[in-house]
Amino acid sequence: MQKVLVIVGPTAIGKTGFSIEAAKRYDGEIISGDSVQVYRGFDIGSGKISKEDMQGIRHYLIDMIDYHEEYNVALFQKEARKAIEEIAKRGHLPMIVGGTGLYIKATLYDYTFDEEKEADNPYDDMSNEEIYARLKEVDPECLNKIHINNRKRLVRALNIYEKNNRGISENIAAQRHEMIYDALIIGLTTNREAVYARINNRVDEMINNGLVEEIRSLLDKGVSFDDKPMEAIGYRQFREYFEGDKSLEMTVKEIKRDTRRFAKRQYTWFNNQTPIEWFDIDDLDKAFIRIGQWLDE
Q1: Which residues pair with 185 in a beta bridge?
Q2: What angle do CA 254, 272, 175 make, to 5 degrees?
């Protein structure tokens, strides 16, 4: 089986620096596992790596599409697997770094995705609330990740149900959940207080680096807070700020709070869904030793 190195962990834990060092040591190339970094212009809020920080290491699935283009877990799976194949053909180690748990698992495991109905559908005359109510009847679990104002995603989820007589959530639950690669999943961590302090500092850095100006520029270009990449943490919290209903201080506090909560969910998700191996950031030599052992297996 093709070997794939996966490096995950909470925001600001040090994944970028560790992954670059790993790529240098083991002749790797990096696939971004993030669902927002794929969008052009969403740089600061997504923690997108700069050209300088790449240090010559080739990266994939960054700056691929514009905000209005469709992107979902099935498209990510297709592009990530294509990148894994290309990297392996050139004799390099494919690495998936950071990102969205479901996207990573869908790439590594034998997930298949149901087909959608044709573009013409009977939903044009239905309100968002009516579509949402219909989904609540047939696939309520999918609504945990879809906002009622995101009509495009609501329609897509309902399309999939109508085409296959089962929802996205039921389809995923029915999979065999077998890994199709020889993947080593490395998780970077440290004590909770330090993780939260790093998150708070990272958010402050984003503000200082121009996150507010980045979002203002995106809005000026026609991006809406209802567009999919704007639903991400670090972006969606600014809706009320730009509508004049919330101060910058309160917005920043919400981003920090939501990012900390997301980090907690990440730990739970990866522990329950993957054979992850955690390593403390203060003793990363152990992680490099483990990677070397795995490569020699």
Answers
A1: 6
A2: 110
CA 199/CA 205 separation, integer angstroms = 10
C-alpha 236: how far from chain center:
15
Q: Quick one: pLDDT band at residue 153, thresholds 50, 70, 90?
A: confident
How far apart (Å, rounded) are the C-alpha atoms in residues 85 and 93?
A: 10
User: For residue 138, what pLDDT band results from cuts at 50, 70 and 90?
Assistant: confident
Provide the mean pLDDT of the chain. Answer: 91
Mean of the pLDDT values across residues 229-251? Answer: 96
Burial tier of 95 (Cβ tally within 10 Å: 0-12, 13-18, 19+): buried
User: Global pTM?
Assistant: 0.83
Beta bridge partners of residue 189, listed in sequence order: 280
- β partners of residue 280: 189
The amino acid at 257: R
Q: What does the block give as tokens for 274?
A: 């993957």
User: What are 258's two structure tokens?
Assistant: 């939501």
Tens digits of residue pLDDT in 65-78: 999 998 888 899 99
Closest to 140 measured CA to CA, from 115, 162, 167, 113: 167
The rounded radius of gyration (Å) of the Cα atoms in the chain is 20
Place of tokens 């708070």: 200
